[in-house]
Amino acid sequence: xxxxxxxxxxxxxxxxxxxxxxxxxxxxxxxxxxxxxxxxxxxxxxxxxxxxxxxxxxxxxxxxxxxxxxxxxxxxxxxxxxxxxxxxxxxxxxxxxxxxxxxxxxxxxxxxxxxxxxxxxxxxxxxxxxxxxxxxxxxxxxxxxxxxxxxxxxxxxxxxxxxxxxxxxxxxxxxxxxxxxxxxxxxxxxxxxxxxxxxxxxxxxxxxxxxxxxxxxxxxxxxxxxxxxxxxxxxxxxxxxxxxxxxxxxxxxxxxxxxxxxxxxxxxxxxxxxxxxxxxxxxxxxxxxxxxxxxxxxxxxxx
Length: 303
Ligand SMILES: C[S@@+](CC[C@H](N)C(=O)[O-])C[C@H]1O[C@@H](n2cnc3c(N)ncnc32)[C@H](O)[C@@H]1O
Known about the structure:
This protein is 24% helix and 33% strand. The protein has 303 residues and is an alpha/beta fold. It has 2 domains: 5-126, Vaccinia Virus protein VP39 (Rossmann fold, 3-Layer(aba) Sandwich), CATH 3.40.50; 130-302, Vaccinia Virus protein VP39 (Rossmann fold), CATH 3.40.50.150. The strands form 4 sheets. Strands 11-10-9-12-15-17-16 form a 7-stranded mixed sheet, sandwiched between helices. Helix 6 links the parallel strand 10 (187-194) and strand 11 (212-216). Helix 1 crosses helix 3. The radius of gyration is 21 Å and the shape is elongated. The N and C termini lie far apart (56 Å). The model has no long low-confidence stretch (mean pLDDT 95). The structure holds S-adenosylmethionine.
């Protein structure tokens, strides 16, 4: 029988050996399994492209060690400048004996799950979903701006008018914008889309409202169920896998325009260095800058 193995993340081809049949457990890959839901001591092997944030990384490593059988193999790796240099210490903190090597700007740490790892429960608790008082919402380390309102979103929140009808938030996160939009009783239906399973799970908790549908999906992919909308609100992402990807925001703009009916509006906030004007002008009939301050621009685009 093939070993029970998991892969967390999407390493570049050839970077690391991935066991045949390994199940994907990254929350950023739609359709993946949830590492936190796997039974204790059920895996033979875990290959982890470790995320950079400390709480998120330790949570993932602890969950992997929890789910591994004693003696099961863990390979954790990351770019040197994105947490790779701290992996060894993190694994040693869980009682692992680590062998480390470096290749292609990455650090690779290999260990076997000890009989009795230490500190797993603490790391799992520190990285778990919880209500964050600064947001008044459920959130989890690792999701976008997990413990504070993003300054761009805060600016958009201050400007969004009372909206009405059917709408969507593309890249909804834990639902910071949605919570404001839903305060308007004239909103009849609201779809929230995010690619991060953790954000989607939090948004489901946070937006317990019969008008809301939360969808775990890639908002770049057209969804025929998100159509004929009256409005879209969004703070589109511009990072993919840690590096800036302006095409991501452009794809969001194009899909927002397609999802609206003629005359529908899109409220969008973007860092002012991002060149979204051309994409907005191409996709919408009118584009107005509603605010330009503090490094952010807020656009109201009408189809
Ligand atoms: C800038 S954040 C905004 C989050 C939230 N709307 C807010 O204002 O706090 C962008 C969000 O887009 C999500 N995201 C990134 N790429 C995505 C994609 N291809 N499809 C859907 N969501 C995506 C991220 O997980 C993140 O939650």
